[in-house]
Amino acid sequence: MVPEESSHAQIGQSVGAKLRAARQAKKMTQGQLAQPDFSVSYISAIERGQIHPSLRALEILAGRLGLSSTELLPKSGEQNEGSKGPSPEEVAELALLEAQVAIQQNEGAEAIERLEKLTNKMLTHRQQVQKGYLLGTAYAAQLQFQEAEAMLSQAIELAREKNDRYSKLQLHYQLGITYAAMHNYAQAISCHLSCLKLLEECGVDDAFLKTRIYFQLGQQHAALDHHEQAITMFEQAIALATEVAGTERRKAAYWTLSQSFIDSEDATLATIYAYKSEFLSNQQAANLLTGEIYHYLGRALLRGDLEAARTYLMNALQDERVLKDQLARASVTTSLAEWFLRQKALREAEEHARQAYKMAVTSGDTIVAKETLLTLGRIEYAQSRYEDGDSHFIAGLEMLERLGLHEELSDQLARYGQLLEERGLVHEAIKYFKRAFEGQQRLAMHS
Asked: How many Cβ atoms from other residues are within 10 Å of residue 198's Cβ?
């Protein structure tokens, strides 16, 4: 059996060779390909096969070369010069990597097809656990929640056999998200509380994952109308996100994680976090998460005492953490716009909503940006400015669809349909009610 390190090395060499060939074909220097996100030494190390890039880095580099990230991966069965051909373990490793790329590119059906071709006889125990995780993630992305639950539960049992706590942690996290999508919020909370316990048992200070866990717990408590618990969880998430907000602090945190995995002899995870320390491929994602946390915190606040909510939001706009984060400011400002709308203070509501949109739009499609669009639409409808309102509603609905937020899309389609019906536009309203109903039917089929 070829050692696991050899499998990773051969994949890395193939990716490096493809990257170098594509770069040279484009007549680009390593420096031109690297800027502004990477160092020349990072590109050089990839091309020499010393490291292989994270999936996010692979996507960025492929985009600069006019390729898809899968075009930089070795094809199944592809051999290195002078080799005797890939071992079954190497073939499986490549298939798992290709499936992971497909999931990140929102190609869940393709990932499932690749993964289902892998039999347990072809896989090491670690690869079987990874296959279960990826299948569970892919099924959830396809709204096949029962299948996702089954795959993740099986993988948890496999991880438990080897007392692989970190894999159990990742699997419980994904299972909790799956339960939440099925509206089984009590089970989701149980899974994510287990994650916090497993993090402590692992002895790994993964502040990034802990932030996401508290964020999920906040959303789940909010769905159960546990307002105080939801706000507490969101505040915990914000505090953790602030701890690792700076690039240098994030680098240091990644390096600490890498050293932890080296000490526990987990070479794969050690390598992953060493790469992340070199290149912060998820820096933008971390910033987006903070904005989203404030968005859901605002929602939770507005379900409670409105005067207390306004005080909290006004104070938040003076908070240094919010002032330094444009998307967080946009979230808080949108919540204030919603507060003024409920008070029928339409001029102030519109002013805040437009400020929020200007801050959010620069980040592209985000939960925060879609909320500013929908809030503007509601404000303009309240002012009988229907043409402007239609424009913002439709833009917000289209962004919801691009973000893949199917449940909220159905709710907002129905809400817009109701507003159209109130204007007497019955024929147009029916179209949106029909789309909302069809969306709910699809969700019901998979719940």
From this structure: 20
Supply the pTM of this predicted model.
0.68
Q: What is the spatial distance between Cα 211 and Cα 290, in angstroms, rounded to a whole number?
A: 9
Question: HSE (CB half, 13 Å, CA atoms) of 72?
Answer: 32
Q: Which residues contact 130 (CB under 8 A, 6 or more apart)?
A: 96
d(CA 276, CA 364): 24
DSSP 8-state symbol, 423: T
Tokens of 221: 């408590």
List, in order, residues 6 or more apart from 407 with CB less than 8 Å away: 181, 439, 443
Question: Where in the chain are the domains?
Answer: 1-75, 87-204
Cα 187 to Cα 175: distance, rounded to the nearest angstrom:
9
Alpha carbon separation from 272 to 31, 96, 254, 269, 298 (Å, rounded): 23, 15, 9, 5, 34
Residues 6+ apart with CB under 8 A from 351: 337
* CA gap 369, 399 in Å, rounded: 8
CA-CA distance, 160 to 155, in Å (whole number)?
9
Q: Compute CA 32 distance to the chain's CA centroid, rounded to the nearest angstrom.
A: 29
The residues near 222 (Cβ < 8 Å, ≥ 6 apart) are 230, 296, 299, 300, 303
Q: CB-based burial of residue 5 (10 Å sphere; 0-12 exposed, 13-18 middle, 19+ buried)?
A: exposed
Per-residue pLDDT tens for 297-315?
998 889 888 999 999 999 9
* CATH number for the domain running over 1-75: 1.10.260.40
Task: Compute CA distances 378 → 129, 341, 344, 388, 429, whole Å.
Answer: 47, 8, 11, 10, 16
Under CATH, which number does the domain 87-204 receive? 1.25.40.10
Encode pLDDT of 174-212 as tens digits. 999 999 999 999 999 999 999 999 888 877 667 778 888
Closest CA relative to residue 279, chosen from 63, 45, 22, 48: 45
Q: Which pair of tokens denotes residue 350?
A: 């519109």
271/88 Cα distance (integer angstroms): 22
Question: What is the C-alpha to C-alpha distance for residues 196 and 215, in angstroms, rounded to an integer?
Answer: 12
Long-range contacts of 370-374 (CB under 8 A, 24+ apart): 370/396, 370/399, 370/400, 370/403, 370/405, 371/295, 371/331, 371/334, 371/396, 372/330, 372/334, 372/337, 373/399, 374/412
Tokens of 136: 């569970």
